[in-house]
Amino acid sequence: MTAPKPKLGHRLTDLFFRGFLRMMLALPLETRLHLTGKLTSNILAPLTGSRRRIRNNLALAMPELPADEVKRLTREVPYHMGRSVMEIYSHADLKEHCKTNQLTGPGVPALQEAQATGRGVMIITGHIGSYVAARYSMQDMGFTLGALYKPMRNPAFNAHYVDAMSANGFPMFEQSRRGLSEMVKHLRSGGMVAIVLDQRINSAPILSFMDKPARTALSAAEMALKYDALVIPGYGIRNPDNSFTITAGAPIPHTTAAEMTQALNDHLAAEVRNHPEQWMWTHNRWKNAGNDTADELR
Question: Which residues contact 85 (CB under 8 A, 6 or more apart)?
Fold first, then answer.
């Protein structure tokens, strides 16, 4: 499929971002990540309305939070989002930084067994912490982890975004008919692939996420059932010292696609409650799910 031709606005945005990247990549890793996080939190978030969306979603999903905690999260959430983006483009330095990380959790033995027996594996994660750091830790343990990605709307930006993601690990599978076909072949040959589950799909069935109705695609679980792939929830959570805790949860039992997906939603919800500042609260996760409150907040 031919990529769409970038519009003038796309090119100007991409030109600015490339210039910003060149300046940031000249700095030491931690300075670069911290500065990007601060700029995102203090400048981009207020300009784009992100703080309002964060407050609205917190009011819906975690109404018990005190006002000072909400205020903290409206600043820390975009800070971590900024770090996450720059981590994608800091592959050489971040890979070195992540060498001391260890992959832990009850799912590790199952991953090792799947690799030994040639069984396909689906690592299901969300927009929390750093999935790039998690990918490096898995690679260091000898796991080759592919990833499914959604192309950016800006085709000029998308070109270097895919290059950066590919530098963090390969293979990469575009969220398209051809990309999904390639991913199925990878799974059937015993490969591993990471999938982000917490994106709203308006045509998806309504399940529960953080005790609120949320449209959630069943496709990952359906694929796992069809191809007998192991399903493992996995996350890379930032620690206060800027190291990462990389975990592989217990395998999700093969039941029905809806039950498996709900279990994955519950697993991610627990991580979000434990580390709310590291989840992408700017996404309209609960919209169009029969939840009037979520729709009214937009």
Answer: 36, 40
CA angle 81, 85, 88 (to 5 degrees): 140
d(CA 70, CA 220): 33
User: What pLDDT is stored for residue 138 in this prediction?
Assistant: 83
Question: Which positions ≥6 away from 2 have C-beta within 8 Å?
Answer: none
Q: Where are the domains of the chain?
A: 8-296
Residue range 139-188, pLDDT digits in tens: 887 887 888 877 777 776 677 777 766 666 678 888 888 888 999 999 99
Note the pLDDT tens digit of each residue in 43-93. 999 999 999 999 999 999 999 999 999 999 999 999 999 999 999 999 889
Would you give the distance in Å from CA 27 to the centre of its chain? 25
166 in Cβ contact with 119 (< 8 Å): no
In sequence order, the 6+-apart residues with CB closer than 8 A to the CB of 113 are 119
Amino acid identity of residue 251, one-letter, is: P
Q: How many residues does the chain have?
A: 298
Amino acid, res. 262: Q
Q: What would the pLDDT profile of 95-113 be if each residue is shown by its tens digit?
A: 889 888 888 999 999 999 9
